[in-house]
Amino acid sequence: MTDTARTTTPAPSEVLPAISVRAAGKIFTVAKGAEVQALTGIDLTVAPGEFVSLIGPSGCGKSTLLRLIADLDSATSGEILVFGKTARQARLDQEYGIAFQSAGLLPWRSVQANIELPLELHGVGKAERAARAEELIELVGLTDFRSRFPDQLSGGMQQRVAIARSLAERPKLLLMDEPFGALDEMTRERMQQELVRICSETGAAVVFVTHSIPEAVFLSDRVVVMSPRPGRIVDIVSVDLGAGTSRSDSLRENPAFFAGVTAVREALHGSPVAPLGADLR
Amino acid sequence: MTTTVSAAAMATDPSAGGAGAGRGAAGRSVARSVLPPVVLGVAFLLVWQLAVVAFDIKPYLLPSPTDIVGQIVIVFPLLWSSLLATGLNALIGLVLGGVLAVVLALLASRVTIFDRMIVPIVAAVAVVPIVALAPILNTMFGSTSDTPRRVVVLIVVFAPIFINTLRGLRQVRPVHRDLMRAYAASNWQLTRTVTLPGAVPFIFTGLRIAAPLGVISAIVAEYFGGLQNGLGSRITSAAANSAYPRAWAYVFGAIILGLVFYGVTLLLERLASRRRA
What we know:
The complex is a heterodimer.
Chain A: E1 19-29, E2 35-46, E3 51-55, H1 62-69, E4 77-82, E5 85-86, H2 87-92, E6 96-99, H3 111-121, H4 126-139, H5 155-166, E7 173-177, H6 185-202, E8 205-210, H7 213-219, E9 222-227, E10 232-238, H8 255-269
Parallel strand pairs in A: 3-8, 3-9, 6-7, 7-8
Antiparallel strand pairs in A: 1-2, 1-4, 4-5, 9-10
Helix pairs in contact in A: 3-4, 3-5, 7-8
Chain B: H1 2-11, H2 23-55, H3 65-110, H4 112-126, H5 130-141, H6 147-169, H7 174-182, H8 187-221, H9 231-240, H10 244-274
Helix pairs in contact in B: 3-4, 3-6, 3-8, 3-10, 4-6, 5-6, 6-8, 8-10, 9-10
């Protein structure tokens, strides 16, 4: 079940991978000089336009890996390339958009001004900013809320704003750290469906950190299964559920979806488990 | 097509409503917050008046409210000009002290070494006794200048604004820091778009403490000689001439001035925070 699908097959010489991680490791120095091995020996390639989820129990380093790719932290060993550049250069060149578990909106800015923030920071003119924000507000379905402030919005709506903001500069890569982690189940499924639609419309590659198995399977082309102490990749499960545009709610009752869920669960638990688990959500 | 569907779905979002429902309630809450202190104040004045009349209290001990009102009417032009003179000193000191405090707090939040240098100095400034300082400043700047009073106000208002602002500047949420790093934002951009706007409520907290303090110190600074144009000078000279109701009339002016400063800062704070909803 590992690594066989179309996503890893294209000749590497022709297509520059969106992300290429080679033997990356991260050691955190904690109090009194003690060291914690957060990640070790990470190898991962993400193709352009590919949707990859990172899943694993708490402390498996999935968020850390995302932060290394985003250059929010730096790797202690190994190499991380984003579109062929070092992670740092890719960040400076604004090669990716990013969204976090907490929406991280600026409370004193309206929905529109929040979405315009990255454009404003990078010197995009006022008219162009407004036009782009308009498109994005429509894309995430917040047309009636553009002049509202974040604390007038529900959690799901705030997260939509954060996603719109991450898309503002049309990145070819999206990094998402449990963006739906704090949402209720219904909102969460609706957001997943919209994310899948938005991503296939924009053609961006996505690295998506989650701890929900169905979420990972529903969204992804490949699910990277990680394990803690030290954080490492134990398996990569290819999910073949078709293009993002064709993924709808009915897919959640499809046998192929269940097969994917089972495969990821087995990889997480390290051995075959009962097919009908109670934690299926 | 998909967007219209999702927009329709949004309309059912549970916490979407309830933003515009607060107009009438605001009017009622103003009435609720203004009425009780006014009632208490009127009752207090009544008891005061009755006590002075009933117990035949002498004016040098406590003049009656009606005597004081009579004096206010008589000296009103002078009261008004004194109020403006003291108010201007307090305002200039407050604005300069406030700007200085915010700028230095910004510096301290950005430059660690500067932070370590300035914090003990601010502690020292905070405990400077204005009673001791005012006569010295009068000699320094000459007794025909308003500058000593303004400097006193500046020193007094500096510490509360500085300390609050610095605390506010340190409240940056990690997610905002990460976000700005991901955007490769410069230090100045981080300050301008995240840190400083986030500190605004803290700046106003400092300002609200500092504004009445500024008025009080502007008045007290006048007790130590120099120009005889402000409320403090009028109070001392009236008291020295045994014109007690007149002294109280100027005290009343001082109270009004303090309230105006406090009210204006409160209003500015409301205006600034309204945008955060």
